[in-house]
């Protein structure tokens, strides 16, 4: 007599996992719009779009983003401001080197300033590439300026 696996027949189906949150899907949609807009743009100057996105942010993200924008522009004027997943980013040769992610973007308790792999921040076999921030002190601003200068090489 054949036996059947009763547990398999009576088990409740697992919850469906979509893979991405609504916020993540929204960020991907924003990125698709950015790419489409960049293809249409003949100028290549995305700074007005970055400043407009910063102006839309709620406090305190807006103030931090404005300060970071000023720091990056002062310390690495060769970087091009651009939108990246709906957030301010700064690129070299079209590749994002550093970025700011507002706390409100994913409803987190802190904002993030980070670097991608094109940044020259290598320090031994392990080094930080992103920094959480709840405030932006003068010492933090100085550190960001120093890191940006180092990142562009």
TrEMBL record:
Compositionally biased residues, Basic and acidic residues: 12-46
Gene3D superfamilies: 3.90.1150.200
InterPro entries for the chain: YdhG-like (IPR014922)
Annotated region (Disordered), positions in chain: 1-49
Transmembrane intervals: none
Span of domain YdhG-like: 62-152
Pfam families listed in its UniProt record: DUF1801
Protein name as it appears in the record: YdhG-like domain-containing protein
Provenance organism: Catellatospora chokoriensis
């Amino acid at each position: 007599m054949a036996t059947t696996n009763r547990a398999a027949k009576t088990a409740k189906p697992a919850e469906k996992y979509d893979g991405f949150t609504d916020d993540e899907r929204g960020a991907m949609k924003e990125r698709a719009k950015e790419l489409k807009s960049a293809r249409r743009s003949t100028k290549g100057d995305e700074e007005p779009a970055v400043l407009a996105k910063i102006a839309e942010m709620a406090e305190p993200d807006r103030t931090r983003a404005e300060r970071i924008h000023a720091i990056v522009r002062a310390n690495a004027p060769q970087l091009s401001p651009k939108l990246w997943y709906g957030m301010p980013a700064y690129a070299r040769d079209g590749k994002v080197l550093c970025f700011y992610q507002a706390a409100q973007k994913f409803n987190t308790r802190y904002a993030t300033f980070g670097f991608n792999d094109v940044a020259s921040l290598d320090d031994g076999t392990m080094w930080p590439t992103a920094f959480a921030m709840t405030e932006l002190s003068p010492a933090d601003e100085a550190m960001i300026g120093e890191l940006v200068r180092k990142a562009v090489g």
